[in-house]
Write a structure and sequence with these properties.
Strand content: 15-25%
Distance between the termini: 55 Å
Number of strands: 20
Number of helices: 16
Number of domains: 2
CATH superfamily of the largest domain: P-loop containing nucleotide triphosphate hydrolases
Radius of gyration: 23 Å
CATH topology of the largest domain: Rossmann fold
Length: 494
């Protein structure tokens, strides 16, 4: 690794009205170097990333690429100058196919195909519609498109947050290989294991300014957390797993031999009131489609679903909601009114439910919304638009609305994807609290360490089938991973 600076950002500041997002942010990346950009949600990472990539103009400071001022206000120009980002949310047009999306960025198809294959996707056709592809595949396509551009500096924003372990390994190996060839990498992630294994340095932001620049070495995680939060903070404690239920109790949600061919073919489980049931699966095992079926977005090809002992059939998401099933998608943008305020987003179910049509009890609504904001410590400085919040605060809003309005059955799909350790520690107890209040919660997570922190039990799906059911107290990462790879025979799947 040489000392040639590919990117040098210094003294960067940015305000949005009265909100000072950045005051003094600094970051350098040399040839062949992978630098982690870290900070709690709200620290200014997203704003800093947008400035580095040309999407926003800073109020002060400078950004240099190979010693020359980076283009301002034009991500396309920044891309042509050698800095290519892969943002946290897919930057593909859903109503176009893969080939059309490549044309929009003048990406050559042959290098793109090469990188898609190298990254572990072997069944992609350029004619595939983006809207038909799962989130993990979209993340890989974004990365393959970026690598095909042969950048000097690659910026990865929570690249692995929606990926299963097998694809994560391929991504990390590919990124390290490109760095060894001289490319610089800015790596935004909340996963300390990846930071330790992949990165050379960590630059830490807090309250809009760079507060530390550390070499990666043993024990650096504790120092990083102290810099991020100003205090030591661990991830959390295991949930008090509830593995037995009153004899004869009717499950809130009963699923039997449910199928949506060819995505999944045999899924059965019971979910009880007061239970958090985890779902564990590697990419492409049918978990996305399972949640879509239960939320009413897709029709099953076989099997049955019962709610409180009564058979149900959904042809529209409104049918699922009417039956008491509420869905929080992995892509938080799908759950929010981005140009409305925090309070309006949290209060949405009060007026959306037909039973509430007519005069609303505004005092009760304000009290419940205020309770959710205080409980989750949601940042409300950007009162005008929820899109101005950090990713973690946006996710708090999607969950906080159900804390405010109440929920019977909650379908949570990767709710902590791309959020920091402090916010995760707020969400785990919230999930448990909702369960203690009687809610039944189905909780898919792409991060195996979350299962024992939040779940009573976990069903493991492999090749479209439930292959194991594991008690939360026994759900360590090694046990879950073996089952996710189909190495454990199904026991008690019903």
């Amino acid at each position: 690794m040489t000392n040639t600076a590919l990117l040098d950002a210094s003294g960067v500041a940015k305000s949005f009205g009265a909100v000072r997002a950045l005051t003094d942010a600094r970051l350098t990346v040399a040839e062949g170097e992978i630098v982690a950009l870290m900070g709690a949600n709200g620290a200014g990472k997203s704003t800093f990333v947008k400035i580095i990539t040309g999407a926003l103009k800073p109020d002060a400071g400078h950004v240099l690429i190979r010693g020359k001022p980076a283009p301002v206000g034009s991500p396309a120009e920044a891309r042509r100058s050698g800095l290519v980002p892969v943002y946290q949310e897919p930057s593909l047009i859903p109503d176009l196919d893969v080939a059309d999306n490549l044309r929009l960025t003048s990406t050559p198809s042959d290098p793109f195909r090469h990188w898609v294959s190298e990254l572990g996707i072997t069944d992609l056709a350029l004619s595939d519609m983006i809207c038909d592809l799962p989130l993990a595949t979209l993340r890989i396509l974004d990365l393959a498109r970026a690598l095909a551009a042969e950048p000097d500096v690659l910026l990865l924003d929570e690249m692995t947050a929606a990926l299963p372990t097998d694809l994560v390994d391929r991504v990390l190996k590919t990124v390290r290989g490109k760095a060894n060839d001289g490319m610089g990498v800015i790596y935004v992630s909340h996963r300390f294991t990846e930071i330790s294994d992949l990165c050379d340095r960590a630059t830490v932001l807090r309250d809009g300014q760079t507060v530390g620049d550390l070499d990666i070495e043993d024990g650096v995680e504790d120092r990083v957390v102290e810099l991020m939060l100003g205090q030591k903070l661990d991830l959390g404690q295991r949930a008090m797993a509830r593995t037995t239920f009153p004899q004869g109790q009717t499950p809130r949600l009963r699923v039997r031999t449910l199928a949506a061919e060819p995505k999944f073919s045999d899924v059965s489980f019971d979910l009880y009131p007061g239970e958090v049931l985890g779902v564990v699966a590697l990419e492409g095992q049918g978990q996305d489609e399972l949640f879509d079926v239960l939320a009413g977005f897709e029709k099953p090809s076989a099997g049955r679903v019962e709610v409180d002992g009564k058979p149900v059939s959904f042809t529209h998401p409104a049918d699922a909601i009417a039956a008491g099933l509420t869905f929080v998608p992995g892509n938080r943008a799908d759950a929010l009114l981005s140009q409305r305020s925090v309070k309006e987003n949290i209060a949405l179910p009060f007026s959306a439910r037909p039973a509430n049509w007519g005069p609303l009890n505004r005092r009760h609504e304000r009290a419940r919304v205020g309770y959710a904001i205080e409980k989750l410590q949601i940042d409300t400085r950007a009162q005008g638009e929820v899109q101005r919040l950090s990713g973690g605060n946006q996710q708090k809003v999607t969950i906080g609305r159900w804390l405010a309005t109440g929920v019977e059955t909650l379908l949570l799909f990767d709710p902590t994807r791309g959020i920091d350790v402090r916010t995760k520690r707020q969400i785990y107890p919230l999930v448990r609290e909702l369960a203690e209040q009687g809610a039944a919660i189905l909780f898919y997570t792409s991060e195996l360490e979350e299962v024992p922190l939040a779940c009573d039990r976990a069903v493991v799906i492999f090749n479209g089938r439930v292959v194991d059911v594991i008690d939360g107290a026994e759900a360590d990462e090694q046990t879950l991973m073996r089952a996710a790879y189909g190495l454990t025979a199904a026991e008690g799947a019903a």
